[in-house]
Every structure is written in structure tokens, then in C-alpha cells.
């Protein structure tokens, strides 16, 4: 098998070989190349020790030298070059106590997580596949290298990575590997929130976010996202829905593009429903106020998983407004733009569309037509430059103080009132009109 290595990767491998060392592209880049996917990055493994790697390349960074990793810089690109190694005992389910360098490629490949990630390649030897990675690629299987219990005991995050790769590649998890996942899922408690978050996001933005249900069935979400389990099996006896809350969420996630903010929003948008479910005398379910509870849950979960403030803010806001429905009029759209945010408004429309498409056919056309009309009015408001924020007002605090108002709460309230006045009619956003309005309010 021939893999087209990037020129700079070939340069690094050739330089190491010219000095008597073995060197191979390894791991995910080999797997993705075989699958005709574009690798995100290229990792290289070599028999050269870290100090020897550093001597052979002009620009290097000691990114993980204690574990044998040196980053080689060529132009604007960086490549991790790691010495063949054997991991020592894992004492915390996360990190090896120590690593030992080895001269044998097979020993290095043996410590890796899954067979499809344990292949190496260079142009001289071609594909090195000791553990049947190619066979598992052909059979579309996620299988651990060696004993899955050993692999998962070494690093519990691999349990979540199994589902993540399953979602990215649409491969089922091999039976023995799945059995070990179910058995050792509780050990994910040892893994840091940041590492859990990174894997969860990769799963969600994959082509198959619905594989999160596999994580539920294997006992993973019970540990890292119990809020998901709470949605499973919660029926929605209402004409608007045909799935239970969890199944509806799976369909809604698939209905938005592979964007972190959108997929997280759809993950959380109905998490408040189990707590807010009521059933009337006719057997119909209602979920009044679920959006606010969902927002609270989203904020709590994202804080727990150490998401950055910007993501927490955006996703929480979208979850809060995911069910915000009004008649599609210019005034209503301008007010919605003000409440939700001009930049977030296209996300809000995408969230509503995904939600509607994951519901039953009941009034679906009406819902979708409303969303399309709101999108057109939003675009028109942008083209017109309609004022929907305080920053766009024709007057500011200084002008109000010139009219005799003092800085403080009253001045802020007046600016908010002026904004509402202008949102009702954009033609009012003129300095003289707004000043006249203020003078009248002040009795001048």
C-alpha cells in the first residue's frame, strides 16, 4: 500500500533515516490516509532518542520530552516526533508512572489504544500493521490492541474515545471491547473534566452524534453526563412530538451542521423536560418552563466540564431562547434580535429549524414557514441597518446628560426606553426625534 506523505513529513523521516534511525508516520494520520480522509496532523515515531532528534533539526520544542516527544518546526508547520516507547505501570488510570524507550517499533505500537490507530508507514517499509488494524478498517470495527481491559485500565479516557471513534467513523465497537467498556465505565470518574469535555465535543460534532446513545447503553453517560440518562424513555404525549425526549434530541442534533455551539445547544435544549413534565386530564403532556430549566442544566454541566466562558454564554442563551416563537413581523424580529443578540440570531434560527424537523408532522409546515419568514426579516433588518442595540442608537449618555439627566440608573433606564421606542419604529432613530422624546418625558 502506498500513502502519499506530505513533503515535510517525508523530509523528517528521510533525515532520521539518513542518520541511521528508523522513522514512520504513525497513528491517526495513517488510519485517515487509508480511509481517504485528510489527516488533521501528522505524528512521527522513531528509534532516535529525544536528544538525538534535537541534534538533527534546527528548530525544535520540548513539548513532552519526558515522554519522548519533541516538536519539530518546519516553516509554519509543526510535527510531533516521538521516540519508540513502552509505558510503565499505570497507577491512576490516566498516566504511566514512567516510560521506557525501546528500539522496537512493535513494542511502541503495542501500547496504543485501538488497532486502527496502531499502524505505521514509511515509503521504504510501507505499511506496518502488527495488530490487524487494516482488517478492522475493512470490517468497520473499533477494537482494542490486545486485552481491552488492560488498555482501558491504563487510561480510562480510552473508554470514551472508543465511542468517539465509533461516531467519527460510523464503526461499531467490537464485542469484547464493548464488554470491557461497560465493565470499566465507572473508572471515567478518574479523568479530568477537561479531557472528558474534549472527547465529548469531538463526539458531538462528528457525522454521527447519535452514537451518544451507545455511550448511554454502555454506562458511560451515567458517569460523565447523567443528565442524558434522565431524558431516556421520557415520553412526550403531545401532537407536536413523535419521539421520547432523548430520541428527539438525537434527531435534533443531526439536523444542525457540525458546529460546536449548535450541537451543544441541541444536546441541552430539552434537558429540562423531565423535571417540568405534567400530564393533563386528557393524557396530554406539557413541559411549560422547560427552556429555563434546560438553560440552568446546560450552564451547570458546562461549568462542571470546564467549558470556556464564551461557549457557556452562547449555548446557555440559545438554550433559553430555543422555544421562543412569535409572529414573523418586522417589529417582532427586531425585538428578538435585541433579546437574543444580532450575531447569535442565525444560530437561533438554525436551532428552531432543527427542533421543528425533529418533531411530528403536526403544524410542521407552519413552524418552518415562520422560521423562514423570520430569517428573511432578519436579513432585511441587517440590510436596512435597523437599530436593535444601544450602540446603534442615535443618542447616547452624553446627549442625555446635556439635556439635564444625571449619570446613573435613571439615565440607563431612559436609554433602554429609547431603544424600545426605536425598535417599534426604526424611523425614530434620529437625534432630534429622540431628544424631543426625552424632553417631553422630563417635562421640558
From TrEMBL:
Pfam families: PolyA_pol, PolyA_pol_RNAbd, tRNA_NucTran2_2. GO terms for biological process: tRNA processing. Its EC number is 2.7.7.72. Its cofactor is Mg(2+). One of its GO terms (molecular function) is CCA tRNA nucleotidyltransferase activity. Residues 24-143 form the Poly A polymerase head domain. Residues 294-437 form the CCA-adding enzyme C-terminal domain. Residues 170-230 form the tRNA nucleotidyltransferase/poly(A) polymerase RNA and SrmB- binding domain. The keyword Transport does not apply. The keyword Cytoplasm does not apply. Keywords: Magnesium, Metal-binding, Nucleotide-binding, Nucleotidyltransferase, RNA-binding, Transferase, tRNA processing. Belongs to the tRNA nucleotidyltransferase/poly(A) polymerase family. PANTHER family: CCA TRNA NUCLEOTIDYLTRANSFERASE 1, MITOCHONDRIAL. This is CCA tRNA nucleotidyltransferase. It comes from Candidatus Mediterraneibacter tabaqchaliae.
Amino acid at each position: 500500500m502506498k500513502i502519499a506523505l506530505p513533503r515535510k513529513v517525508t523530509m523528517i523521516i528521510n533525515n532520521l533515516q539518513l542518520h541511521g534511525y528508523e522513522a514512520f508516520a504513525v497513528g491517526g494520520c495513517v488510519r485517515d490516509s487509508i480511509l481517504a480522509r485528510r489527516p488533521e496532523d501528522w505524528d512521527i515515531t522513531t528509534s532516535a532518542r529525544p536528544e538525538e532528534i534535537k541534534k538533527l533539526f534546527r528548530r525544535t520544542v520540548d513539548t513532552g520530552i519526558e515522554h519522548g516527544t519533541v516538536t519539530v518546526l518546519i516553516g509554519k508547520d509543526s510535527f510531533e516526533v516521538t521516540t519508540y516507547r513502552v509505558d510503565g505501570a499505570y497507577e491512576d488510570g490516566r498516566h504511566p508512572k514512567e516510560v521506557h524507550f525501546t528500539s522496537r517499533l512493535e513494542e511502541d505500537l503495542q501500547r496504543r489504544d485501538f488497532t486502527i490507530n496502531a499502524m505505521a508507514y514509511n515509503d521504504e517499509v510501507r505499511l506496518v500493521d502488527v495488530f490487524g488494524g487494516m482488517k478492522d478498517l475493512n470490517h468497520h470495527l473499533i477494537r482494542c490492541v490486545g486485552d481491552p481491559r488492560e488498555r482501558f485500565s491504563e487510561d480510562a479516557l480510552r473508554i470514551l474515545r472508543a465511542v468517539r471513534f465509533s461516531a467519527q467513523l460510523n464503526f461499531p465497537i467490537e464485542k469484547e471491547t464493548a464488554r470491557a467498556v461497560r465493565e470499566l465505565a465507572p473508572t471515567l470518574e478518574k479523568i479530568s473534566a477537561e479531557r472528558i469535555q474534549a472527547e465529548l465535543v469531538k463526539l458531538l460534532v462528528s457525522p454521527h452524534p447519535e452514537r451518544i446513545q451507545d455511550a448511554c447503553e454502555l454506562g458511560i453517560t451515567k458517569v460523565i453526563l447523567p443528565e442524558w440518562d434522565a431524558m431516556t424513555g421520557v415520553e412526550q404525549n403531545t401532537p407536536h412530538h413523535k419521539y421520547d425526549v432523548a430520541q428527539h434530541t438525537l434527531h435534533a442534533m443531526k439536523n444542525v451542521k457540525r458546529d460546536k455551539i449548535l450541537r451543544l445547544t441541541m444536546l441541552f435544549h430539552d434537558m429540562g423536560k423531565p423535571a417540568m413534565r405534567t400530564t393533563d386530564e386528557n393524557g396530554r403532556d406539557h413541559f411549560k418552563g422547560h427552556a429555563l430549566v434546560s438553560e440552568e442544566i446546560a450552564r451547570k454541566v458546562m461549568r462542571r466540564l470546564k467549558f470556556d466562558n464564551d461557549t457557556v454564554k452562547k449555548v446557555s442563551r440559545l438554550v433559553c431562547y430555543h422555544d421562543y416563537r412569535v409572529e414573523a413581523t418586522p417589529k417582532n424580529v427586531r425585538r428578538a434580535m435585541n433579546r437574543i443578540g444580532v450575531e447569535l440570531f442565525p444560530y437561533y434560527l438554525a436551532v428552531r429549524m432543527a427542533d421543528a424537523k425533529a418533531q411530528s408532522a403536526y403544524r410542521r409546515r407552519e413552524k418552518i414557514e415562520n422560521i423562514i419568514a423570520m430569517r428573511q426579516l432578519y436579513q432585511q433588518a441587517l440590510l436596512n441597518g435597523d437599530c436593535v442595540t444601544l450602540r446603534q442608537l442615535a443618542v447616547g449618555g452624553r446627549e442625555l446628560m446635556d439635556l439635564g439627566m444625571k449619570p446613573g440608573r435613571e439615565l440607563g433606564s431612559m436609554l433602554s426606553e429609547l431603544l424600545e421606542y426605536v425598535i417599534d419604529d426604526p424611523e425614530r432613530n434620529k437625534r432630534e426625534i429622540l431628544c424631543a422624546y426625552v424632553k417631553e418625558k422630563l417635562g421640558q
